[in-house]
Amino acid sequence: MIGAIEAGGTKFVCAVSDNSLNIIERVTIPTTHPEETFDSIFNFFDQYELKAIGIGSFGPINVNRQSETYGYITSTPKKLWRNIDFLGTVKRRYNIPIGWNTDVNASALGEITLGAAKGKSSCVYITVGTGIGGGAVVNQELLTGFGHPEMGHLLVPRHKKDTYKGVCDYHKDCLEGLASGPAIEERFGIRAKNLPEEHEAWEIEAHYLAHAAMAYTLILSPDCIIFGGGVMNQKHLLDLIKVKFLELLNDYVNLPPIDEYIIPTGLGSDSGIVGSLLLGKSQLK
Amino acid sequence: MIGAIEAGGTKFVCAVSDNSLNIIERVTIPTTHPEETFDSIFNFFDQYELKAIGIGSFGPINVNRQSETYGYITSTPKKLWRNIDFLGTVKRRYNIPIGWNTDVNASALGEITLGAAKGKSSCVYITVGTGIGGGAVVNQELLTGFGHPEMGHLLVPRHKKDTYKGVCDYHKDCLEGLASGPAIEERFGIRAKNLPEEHEAWEIEAHYLAHAAMAYTLILSPDCIIFGGGVMNQKHLLDLIKVKFLELLNDYVNLPPIDEYIIPTGLGSDSGIVGSLLLGKSQLK
């Protein structure tokens, strides 16, 4: 059996699967104080005999094996979770192999293995919700370098009608600061899910997300870009992003057909937990 | 013996080396009409018995082996070179293994194998000159996906004092449009190499290049970013970029020390030709 933790800023999803990734049980745990949250996680996993665990965590996290704080959550805006030894805490409870990466890298792995990017050798996964984050698979490997991508904090050109100051604690008007769910809500006074399709918000939102897709394209040249997260539940948004993106690119590089390039998730809200199971499974090889 | 072609927009450098990459002879050929340029290349290589050739070409080029136009230069602003079957033309003359990638990916390969990024597992190489281009090595492999990176055409936030329209044929005010040598010259009426160190141009230039470094960092998380190209011969520029970059990043992610992260080339103007020889040599394995 394999365990998985998808650690998000508002909730943790934990799951246990067999070796073929059939999920046997899953629970959702609110993200509160680390001690309390870990107690709930351990209560769940203690019922099973696990061979490996995969963790996909919100970030920034330390993925540098040479570092003394490898396995820590680092400079997150969630103050209670800053400098928490996530991997070590789980490792001390269950002395088994543990895969460790960001939630969005896990999602990219889930989507390229079993979801919308199945069969491809590269993809970007971006989630647009409470925060914005991105992960990627390049040459069939998870994208890590000195650290991991933080694609949600890209600095993007302003929409010419947008004077909103931005909501990011670190960069004010980065992509997350301007286009995350809380930014939409603060700017327009309505939650994204309640904004009507014809509201000007969507043209502004599409501007920022198209700029993100443009940067990912020009820097990574992936086989596809997958948009997930709560804000993308407004289904008309994806088409607006495609139109803006093609305008910005102006035919400069060859791409797959746009409807195969900028695409929705194949696993829906399960990308992260499936990817985390895959991270766990990869430790058994 | 290994042959190499570093194909640039203004000149081609061709070289021949032994198997240890000691360069035996090199020539520089102006980039004129393709037929004339290829004649000069063949005149040079015909003197040697080559086992393999590496080509690092200006782009965009087609690096997708599944494509019918694999090996072509595609939508380049240099009209004479648009839709030219570069790889095929060389392959028909010398029926030997040929490595094919962008000039900047070749430079990244040169720098990580024998230059400033030696021993690292990832790097970005960016050249700032007549154009701006970037290449990368990720997990010790050249970064390619559906196509290749076109990092010079990033869309970056405007410097607040800069109203210059931009020089890029495709995107007007992308990074290349605002920060390449021709953009500096048209905006200020002086060639970059003749602009004094205290000129306001450098603060504007550093703004754009720091934004580029920020995007490469947030999307790729490389071990280092290497700045090369003619504009970087103004040695004070690199320090200005570092200062701006750290301001923008605002301590959000852990990085290597800045003087080991944003760095000059190790191979100087030889990154591209050395990388092209390496592309050739890699075909012999």
TrEMBL record, chains A, B:
Q: Name one Pfam family in it.
A: ROK
Cofactor(s) listed: Mg(2+)
Molecular function terms from GO: ATP binding; fructokinase activity; metal ion binding
For this protein, the Enzyme Commission number is: 2.7.1.4
User: What reaction does this catalyse?
Assistant: D-fructose + ATP = D-fructose 6-phosphate + ADP + H(+)
Q: Keywords assigned by UniProt?
A: ATP-binding, Carbohydrate metabolism, Kinase, Magnesium, Metal-binding, Nucleotide-binding, Transferase, Zinc
Its family remark reads:
Belongs to the ROK (NagC/XylR) family.
What is the protein named? Fructokinase
